[in-house]
Write a structure and sequence with these properties.
single chain, alpha/beta, Spore Coat Polysaccharide Biosynthesis Protein SpsA, Chain A, 15 helices, about 50% helix, disordered C terminus
Amino acid sequence: MILLAAKATALVVVFVLSVYSLRHFFFAFHRLFRPQRMNYTDLAGFHMPSVTVLIPMHNEEAVAHDVLEALLEADYPHDPGLLEIIPIDDHSTDGTGEILDEYDARYSWIKPLHRREGRRGKAAALRAATRLATGEILIVFDADYIPGKSLLKFLVAPFADPEVGAVMGRVVPENTGSSLLSRLLDLERAGGYQINQQARNNLGLIPQYGGTVGGVRREALETVGGWNALSLTEDTDLTLQLAIRGWKVAYVNRAECYEEVPVTWAVRRRQIERWAIGHTECLRRYLWPLLRSPYLSRKAKLDGVLLLGVYLTAPLVLLGWAACVLLFFSGQSFLPALAAFFLASTCYNAVGNFASFFEIGNSVILDGAHARVRLLPLNIANFLFSTLTVSLALAKYYGGRILGLRPPWHKTERYRNGNGNNHAGGNGNGGSSGNGYPNGRGLNFIRARSIIPGSPAS
């Protein structure tokens, strides 16, 4: 009976991983060789709606200047009737609040919100700030992100389509030289955005609103009851709620924003744990409503199911390995399934965290950054680390559900400007060095990375 269960487990794992592998291959093929959807920014004369930029911050004195200075250079009209910025001091214990008050005194359209009561966390902060916002469109940035000069216009343009409820831009790591991990995450981000998100947008599937570098129509947000303050991944939560109710989510590949990715494996582990647990909560909450939605096509529903189940592939990989090892040492003639499992798991996972070889390789081609392809073999480290981390996180999540415990919210550490000690709940020792950017690049880095219309990456 045990050997029969092992055989069944191995075959199921082979099938699931093969489905994901084919999905990613199809996305890469479509992105390279099929017609692309027209950029909304190519439409002339679109209405420029009023915009509120929301920036949740908890102990972000190391990076608060950077994002605000970048927004000061944005080419969206700095008219109080068209643009307001609400940076949210969410229970900070460092100098974040003082920095925000300095900008408040200088600019009438920067209106900080200081939160000292209630639940801490990004979703709760967004929910509180949304009640004060006046814009038709709410655009969200994490505190460590640096928006390009034209980003706001790029993100707002798709809302000319009244069916679009949310828009997502492209995230580009700007600290890739900090460590091997940051270089590997650069590959992961490139495959995930340049190929995966763009292909899903082209195919009319469900591009994912990522919680930062994106916007949501206030009307659409209200129809789903606002931000889910209890969710660890309010972005995935919002994506599914909008799709289920018939709102479109658009992706704009040329809307680039620059982020600081984790540079240590410990920080990366906490980030993955939060994503895996929050994503799995969305699976439990929205799988059945997704399948029943009258607004989604069959292919969109299938894409949604695969999107919701992506983190479950990590424990499936471990189960498949265990089953094949058991069968091997039991003297079973199970080589075909063993070989298939090996090929499926390595082709899909071994060159990245939930991104296939085809997606990463083709993103390198489209970005014109051919030297990055040399790092592909090293992504086995990222794969093994992520597989183990996600599996442990899901074990913790389901164990916590049995015991009635809620998972905690952790803030990702910031290293910009020489700071690396902003632990969640800590004091974030070390101040901001003015408006400086890592590696001395400053806002010139943003201009240098701007996408030229008509280029391969656009």
